[in-house]
């Protein structure tokens, strides 16, 4: 039976904490960017009890985190992970902008608490996140 090598465990812990803190900061940056590009105030609407903005925002966040997890798991270095996280952020923003252009009233309908458009946006955001994560394998 091998003995535990504390130096290897601590080295792994340092990498874990570095990536975890970076992932939390990147998730916060994504949330800030997403909230900035949407023309409605998600948190205000959610506090008012509206479901559609919560669905759309939560799925966009999950879509980004799915892609981010792929970047963390498959990157060859910390810088590589940061680059792929930036690409994932860009793709999630692109999904929102693309759907907003395809459906002119998308934002108004989500702000008015219509679930259909929010679920459609959620589906596209999650699909983009899953595909991004899958494409980040080498």
3D shape: elongated
> N-to-C SSE series?
HHHHHH
Count of helices? 6
Q: Mean of residue pLDDT?
A: 91
According to DSSP, the number of beta strands is 0
Radius of gyration: 18 Å
Report the portion of residues in β strands.
Answer: under 5%
Protein structure class = mainly alpha
Distance between the termini: 34 Å
Low-pLDDT sequence parts: none
Measured as a percent range, the helix fraction is over 70%
Oligomer status: single chain
Largest sheet at a glance? none
Q: Would you mind describing this structure in some detail?
A:
There is one protein chain. This protein is mainly α. The protein has helices at residues 6-37, 42-47, 52-74, 78-102, 106-111, 115-135. The chain starts with 5 loop residues before the first helix and ends with a helix.
Outline of this structure?
By secondary structure, this protein is mainly α. Helix content is 82%, strand content 0%.
Summarize this structure as a short list of keywords or feature phrases:
138 residues, mainly alpha
């Amino acid at each position: 039976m091998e003995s535990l090598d504390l130096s290897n465990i601590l080295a792994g812990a340092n990498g874990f904490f570095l990536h975890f803190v970076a992932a939390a900061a990147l998730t916060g940056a994504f949330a800030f960017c997403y909230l900035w590009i949407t023309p409605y105030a998600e948190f205000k609407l959610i506090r008012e009890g509206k479901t559609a903005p919560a669905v759309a925002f939560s799925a966009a966040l999950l879509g980004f985190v799915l892609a981010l997890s792929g970047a963390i798991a498959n990157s060859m270095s910390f810088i590589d992970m940061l680059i792929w996280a930036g690409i994932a952020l860009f793709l999630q923003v692109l999904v929102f902008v693309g759907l907003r252009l395809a459906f002119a009233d998308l934002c108004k309908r989500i702000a008015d608490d219509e679930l259909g458009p929010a679920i459609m946006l959620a589906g596209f955001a999650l699909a983009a996140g899953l595909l991004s994560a899958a494409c980040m394998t080498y």
